[in-house]
Write a structure and sequence with these properties.
Elements lengths: L6 H27 L8 E5 L2 E7 L8 E6 L2 E8 L17 E8 L10 E5 L2 E7 L14
Antiparallel strand pairs: 1-2, 2-7, 3-4, 4-5, 6-7
C-alpha cells in the first residue's frame, strides 16, 4: 500500500531534517575546523573613543609599531622567543615571528590625542573620535 504525503509536509520535514543535520555537524566538527585566534588576542570597544586592549606577552614598546592611515589601524611587530637560560621547552602556545592586525575604523579619529601604552604585556590604545560640530545656518529674507 502506498502512503501519500502532502507536498508541504514532505518539504517541511526535509527542511527540519536538514537543519538538525547542520546543527549536529556544527557541534561535532566545528571546534576542530576553527582556525587559531590571531595574535595578539584583542578586545575593542567604543563610545566617545575607540579602545583597544591587546595581549602582548614579553613585548616592549620597541617591538610593536602602530599606525593609523586612511582610517586603517595597523598593529604590527615582532615576537621574539624568550626562554630562561638552562631550561628546555616543554610546551609552547605563543608563536614567535612577525605579526600584523589591521582594522578599518568607521569613525574619524583625532590623531593628535591618540594614547598608547604597553605595560606588563598589555597594549592599551585610546583613539578619541572627532565629534562632528553642528553649525546653525541663518536664513535671510529676500
Amino acid at each position: 500500500m502506498l502512503y501519500h504525503f502532502p507536498t508541504r509536509t514532505v518539504f517541511s520535514e526535509l527542511d527540519r531534517l536538514q537543519r538538525e543535520m547542520n546543527r549536529l555537524f556544527e557541534r561535532s566538527f566545528a571546534p576542530r575546523l576553527r582556525s587559531a585566534p590571531s595574535f595578539p588576542a584583542m578586545n575593542v570597544w567604543t563610545n566617545d573613543a575607540i579602545f583597544v586592549v591587546a595581549d602582548m606577552p614579553d613585548m616592549n614598546e620597541n617591538s610593536v609599531d602602530i599606525t593609523l592611515e586612511k582610517n586603517i589601524l595597523s598593529i604590527q611587530g615582532l615576537v621574539e622567543p624568550v626562554y630562561p637560560e638552562g631550561y628546555s621547552v616543554a610546551y609552547i602556545e605563543y608563536e614567535d615571528g612577525d605579526f600584523q592586525r589591521r582594522f578599518t575604523l568607521n569613525d574619524k579619529i583625532n590623531q593628535d590625542k591618540i594614547e598608547a601604552t604597553l605595560r606588563e604585556g598589555v597594549l592599551r590604545l585610546k583613539l578619541p573620535k572627532i565629534v562632528p560640530t553642528q553649525r546653525k545656518i541663518s536664513v535671510k529674507a529676500g
